[in-house]
C-alpha cells in the first residue's frame, strides 16, 4: 500500500473522467435537443462551443500525468482519442471564437448525426475508462 | 453532405459512406496524356462537334481555300469528320427534290440515309475518280433502268460506291475523320478501325478535319431546318403543339391554369410513338422504303449485317435501307417529283455546264451541293482564283437545267443560303423536324457508328428483332425507351425539355399538382425503400421556387386555417376525406376534424362539399394569416443602402447608375406608407446621411472611428420615404457629384455593415451593399489571397473557396436574428474575396449580384446593371419570413441548399424572401414506404408582405411510389437532378475539393447508367443505353463540368467561380439549366418558323440546337440565350438581304457589333426577330442584355466558349465524355 505518483494520476484521471462523462452526456442531450427542435442552433452552439476546449484540455491533462507517471498502457489507450481531438480541432470551420460547432451547418443531418454519434461513442469510452482508472488506481495503491 | 441514400461521394459503392472521394475509374483515364497513349480508348471523334479542334478555329476563311485545293480521292470522302447529321439534311433535300437521277448524282456526295446516320462526304469531286465497279449491279436494284444513261453511269457507280462505302462506314463512323486517307477499300475500312494504325495516322489529319468542318456545319444545319415531308397528319401535331403552348405560358404559368385536357394529351404516350406511326405515309413509294420507315428497328440489324459483311454478299441488303429514304420522302413533295423518265433525257445530255451559270444563286439552297461547292459559289472571286478545282464538274448540274429544276427553283422565294423552312408551311416543318429527331434518336440508330465488335449472325439478328418488336413497342408506349447515347446525336427534345409529368393514382388523378416551375422532385416516383433508392444511384431531393411571381394565385382569408393537429400540415388537395366532417392528413395520417366553416363554399355560397374549396382545388394557395402567426406586428418595409465610395468604386462609376435607377424607382419600391429608407456610404470612414424633415438638405455625418462602430445620431438616419421624399431625391442627385472622384483607397465595409445592422435592428428589413473592392479596414477586413497564376490550374484549393473569417457569417446570423437580409452587389475590377463576403448574404437570406470588371463607360455593363437594379428594386419582397418543408412520414429532409439560416430540422429562416430565390432540399428515406400510395411534400412560406400583411403561401407536391428500379429510373427528372447535383457539388467543393466534385459528377453519370444496365436484360456491350428520362443527364453533366463554377484548366477568376457557385445554390431551376446549357436558336429564317401563341401574341419558335460548332453555319444567324445574356451570332457568309432586313446594315461588314438592341425595321425578319427576343425577355425576371457578335469579332469567344459539346483544350467533347463514362459503367 503506497501512495505514489501513479496512484495520484489515476485519482486525478478518475475525477477528470467523471467530469468528461458529464460533458459527453451534456453533448448528447444538446444534439438531441437540436434534432427535436427544442433549441435554436445559434444558442446551442453558443453553449456547446465554450465546453469543447476544456474537455480536450482536461483529457490531455490527465494523460500528461499518465505520461509522467509512466502509465504507458493507460496512455496508449488514450492516445487515439487525443489524436482525434487534435485533428478535429485542426479541421474546425473558420471561426473567431473557440469551439467546433458552426450554427450554419450544424443542422445538416450528416453533421448532426456525426456529432451525436461522437457524443455516444465518447460517453461509452469515458465510462469504460472510468472503471479502468478505478482499477488502475487500486492497482497502483496496492502494488508494492 | 453525405450519408444520403444517393451516394454522391466519388465512390461507386452503394453504402453512401461519406468518403471524401475514391477514384473509381482507371486513374489513367483521368489525364489527357494517358488517353492519348492508349488508342483503344481514343474516343471516336465523330459526332459531337468538331472533334479535335477548337471551335474557335472553325470559322476562318482560310478553311475554304484549303478545301478547294484539297486533292480528290475517294478516301477523302470517308475521312472527313463527318457528323452523321449531315446525312439527314441531304436526305431531306433529296426528298424535296425528286428522284431525278441527276440530282441523285449530284447529291450523292452528301446524301444518304436519314436514319442510319451514315457519314457523308462533303467532298463530291472525288467520286468521279473512284467509281467502284462492284457496286454497280446493286445500283440497279435501286433505280429504274432507264435512269442509267451511259454518261452518268460512272456517276451513279460512284454513288453506289459511296453508298456502299458509307454503309460500311457506319460502323466506323466515329472514326472516319481519323482514318483520313488510310484505307484502300471500303471493306477494309471496317477492319481498320481496330487497327492501331489509324491512330498513328490520325494526328496529321487534324488540319484537314478542320477544313471540312465548315462543310459539315452547313450540312448539319440544314438538317435541322429542312422540311422533309408532310407526313404527319394534323392530329399528330396537336399534342406537341399543345404542350408547347402550355409550356410557353412563361412566368405567368400557374397550376390553376393547367388544362387537364392538355395534360392528358401529352401524358399517355410519348410523342415518338404517335409520330412514328403516322410517319409512314400510305404513298411512301417502294416497299423497301416502308421497311425502313415503318419498322425502324428492322433496319438496325439489317444494316449491321451489311456492315459486318462489308463484302459483296451483303451489299444487296444495305442498299435497301440506304436508298429507301431517298425515295420515300420525295414522294410527298410534288414539285420535286418529276417523273423519272422526264429526268432521264437530261442525263443523256452530258454537257458540262459551268456551275455559276447553271444555277442562279437563288437556287443554291435547294440544291444538295457538296457544301464545298456552295462555299465556292459564295466566294466566287477567291474560289476561282485559287484554281478551278476538279470538283467543278462534279455536281453535274446537268439535270438542273431540265424542266424539273425550273419548276423547282421557280417555286422558291428569294435567295438565301440556308432556308430550311421556306419551302413549306412552317408548322408542319417544325413538326417534321421534331419527328425527325425523335426517329433519329430512338428508333433508328442503325447505321450510325455501330461498333465493329458486333457482328450478328442471322440468328442473333432474328433474336434482336423479335425482342425489339415486342418490348420496344411496349416500352415506347410507356415512355420507357432506352436511348443509346453513343448513337443518338440529337437528343435535345423540341421545342424544349419538358418536366416529366407526375402520374398519380386514380383517386388523385384529377387533383392539380403543384406546378413544376415551383416545386420539382428529382424523381417523379419515389422509391419505396431506401435500398431501392440506393440501387438507382440517383439523388432524391426537391427543388423549390416558393416565392415565384405568379399570375394567378388564390388568396384566402379566413378565421381558421385548417391544419393537421399533430403535424401542422395545411389542408391540401391530396388529403383524404373520411366523411364530410373529418379529413385524414396525408403527411402524418392523423384524422382531423373539419371546422364547420370549411363546409362552406365561398364561390357557390353553398354548404356541404368540402372538396370544392380552393384549398382542395389548388396545390398552390396563399392564406392571409390571422394574428397567431405573428410574433410581433408586421414590420414595415425598411431599406438601407450601403454604398462603397472608395477610389475604386468611384472609378467604376456605378454610383451614378445606381442613384439614377433608385431615383426613378423610388415610388416603385415595394412598401406601404411606413416604408423607410436610409443611406450609408463608406470609404475608410463611414458616412451617414441625416434626412430629417427639418433640414433643407441632407446632412452628412462622418464616423472615422471604425474600430468600434456606433450610430452617430439615433434618428433621421432611417427615415420615412414618403415624408422625406424630397430629401432622399436631393441626396440621390448629390451623391454621384460628391463622389465623382475619390482618393480614399480604404474600404470599411465591415463597420458600415455593423452600422446598418444597428439602424435596422429594431425593425428588420433589407441592407443592400454595393461593393467594388476588397474591404481593407476596420473589423472584417480581408487581404488579397488570390494567386492569379493559379486561375487556370488543375485544381482549386478548397480553402480558397471558403471564407477566411467568420466575421461576415456572424454578422449575417445577427442580421438573421433581427430579420435583416443583406444583399450584395459586387462591381469589382479586382479581387474582392467574394468567398468571405458572400457569407453575409448566404446566411441572411439575401441575394448576390456580380458585375465583374464593371465600368460605367461600357454601355453594356451599365445597361445590365440598370436592368438588374430595376428588377431588384421593384420586385416583390417578403419580410421576416420562414419556410417550413414538411414531408410524408418516412421521409426526412437531409440537407438544405440556398441562402437562408436553418433554424431547425425542417425550418428555414429567411429574413427576406424574393421571387428570384430558389431552394433545394435533399431528402432521405428513413422508413419503408411500401404501404403508401403517394408521398407528399408541403412547403409553407410565412412572410410579411410589403404592405404589412402576414401571409402564408403553401405549395403541395404529391408523388406516387415506385416499387421497382426501372420505374424509378424512368421517372427521373433529369433537369431537377442536375439542379440538385449542382448544389451538392458546390457543397462538396467547399468541403473537399473541386477535383472531388468534378469526379463525383462523372460518377453520377456512370452510376446512373450502371443502374440502368441492371434493369436491361439484353444489354449490348457496345452501346451505352440510358432511359429516355435521363438521356440528357450526361450532356448536362458535361455542361456543368465546363461551367464557370466547376471548370478547370481555363482561366477563371476566383470571385467569378465563387459567384457561379453561389448562383448554383440559389438560382431557380429554369434559370440554372439555362445558364449551364444555354438555348441556341437559329434565327436567320425566323420569319418562317412556326408560331406559337403566348397570351395574345404569336411568337416564332425556332428549334433549339445542340451547343456544338457543327450546328453553326457561317451563313446563319444564331441566338444564344443563357438567361442573363442574349448573344446574336452572325456568320460572315450571311446573305446580304438578311443583313439588311435584320440589322439594317448593307453587308456583313457593316453590321455594328456594338448594337445593344435590334434596329426596328419594317420587315418580317426584323419584326419576328424582335418579337422573339421580346418573348425571351419577358420569360425572364430580369431582362437579359443583348449583344450582336459578328463571327470576325474577338468577342465571338463569348459565344464559342458556350458551345460546350465541343472539345476544348481543357475539356472533353461530348462524345469523349461518353466514352469516358462508358468505361466506368459496370
From TrEMBL, chain A:
One of its GO terms (biological process) is vesicle-mediated transport. It is found in: Membrane. It holds the Pfam family Cornichon. GO terms for cellular component: membrane. It is a multi-pass membrane protein. InterPro entries: Cornichon (IPR003377), Cornichon_conserved (IPR033466). Keywords: Membrane, Transmembrane, Transmembrane helix. The keyword Membrane applies. It comes from the Eukaryota. Belongs to the cornichon family. This is Uncharacterized protein. It comes from Nesidiocoris tenuis. The lineage of its organism: Eukaryota, Metazoa, Ecdysozoa, Arthropoda, Hexapoda.
Automatic annotation (TrEMBL), chain B:
Coiled coil: none annotated. InterPro entries: ADF-H/Gelsolin-like_dom_sf, Beta-sandwich_Sec23_24, Gelsolin-like_dom, Gelsolin-like_dom_sf, Sec23/24_helical_dom, Sec23/24_helical_dom_sf, Sec23/24_trunk_dom, SEC23_SEC24_subfamily. Residues 878-961 form the Sec23/Sec24 beta-sandwich domain. Its main location: membrane. The keyword Endoplasmic reticulum applies. Residues 1100-1173 form the Gelsolin-like domain. It is a peripheral membrane protein. Residues 561-597 form the Zinc finger Sec23/Sec24-type domain. This is Sec23/Sec24 beta-sandwich domain. It comes from Nesidiocoris tenuis.
